[in-house]
Specification:
The chain has a domain of about 80 residues. The chain is globular. The longest helix is centred in the C-terminal third of the chain and has 24 residues. Strands 6-7-8-4-9-10 form a 6-stranded mixed beta sheet, with helices on both faces. Strand 2 and strand 3 form a beta hairpin. The chain is of the alpha/beta class. The protein is built from 7 helices and 10 strands. The two termini are about 25 Å apart.
Length: about 260
């Protein structure tokens, strides 16, 4: 089998061609992903749904370079896709601004430039005035905003403004640990930031309503091994149309989960 990760391919930020991932060998081998074909267009917001263990996070890890596919090809038009995890994973000894500056510092930007970009990004996520605070001084929602600003800094073009369009942002259930009100606020904020930056987003969630609210396209993976089994275009839905899409996707998701349980 051929395994390829191609970087700086012209076109969509990421394309998967018959991608597979197997963990372990022999009798202990576990196939997490099998023959995945998926493309995320420039500026598109795609939500991944599926049962626990279907390979959603594995898919993100492959794009982020945290793991390698066993088979197939991943074409990346992003040299540094960034990941926002369920936990903010901020450096506790750094300020909010220092956390946002970190990827810029690692990229070799000057102190003045990275400071200016960090402040721009903190303003973008509506955290103006908290740059000097450390993570323990911030609420859970504020910490997740800092993590989002850091991710945007990581994907931004180092030669341009921090508010230029980053190519690809990977989000792994970033709001699942938050209370309902904070989650609702941050979903709205994410949509605003996405529209402001034009970045493509690949967003993993277990919440069908969240997927329909946020995504332009919802992709359903089968239970292990994960394969793309169905897609829905949900951009612009509201009211009865949104409710109908949620019901339809929930039904499909339940079928996927039931078929796995019966296997």
């Amino acid at each position: 089998m051929t395994t390829t990760v191609v970087r700086n391919v012209v076109g969509s930020p990421v394309r998967f061609h018959r991608v597979g991932k197997v963990f372990g060998r022999g009798r202990r081998a576990v196939t997490a992903l099998d023959q995945v074909d998926l493309e995320v267009s420039a500026g598109e917001f795609v939500c991944l749904l599926g049962a626990s263990g279907c390979g959603k996070t594995t898919l993100l890890n492959l794009v982020a370079g945290l793991d390698e596919p066993t088979s197939g090809t991943i074409e990346l038009n992003s040299s540094r896709p960034a990941v926002v995890f369920q936990e903010p994973a901020l450096m506790p000894w750094l300020t909010a601004a220092g956390n946002v500056e970190l990827p810029l510092r690692l990229a070799g930007q000057s102190r003045a430039d990275r400071r200016a970009k960090a402040l721009e990004l903190l303003e973008l996520v509506r955290l103006t005035g908290v740059g000097d605070k450390r993570p323990h001084e911030l609420s859970g929602g504020m910490r997740q905003r800092v993590a989002l600003a850091r991710a945007l800094a990581s994907t931004a073009d180092n030669l341009g403004s921090a508010l230029e369009r980053p190519s690809l942002l990977l989000m792994d259930e970033p709001f699942s640990a938050l209370d309902a009100i904070t989650r609702d606020v941050l979903q709205s904020e994410l949509l605003r930031i996405w529209q402001a930056t034009g970045t493509a987003i690949l967003f993993v969630t277990h919440d069908v309503r969240e997927a329909v609210r946020l995504g332009q396209r919802v992709v359903l993976l089968s239970s292990r091994p994960g394969r793309v089994v169905r897609e829905w275009f949900v951009d612009g839905l509201s009211g009865p149309g949104e409710a109908a899409a949620v019901d339809e996707i929930n039904t499909a998701l339940r079928k996927v989960i039931s078929s796995h349980a019966a296997a």
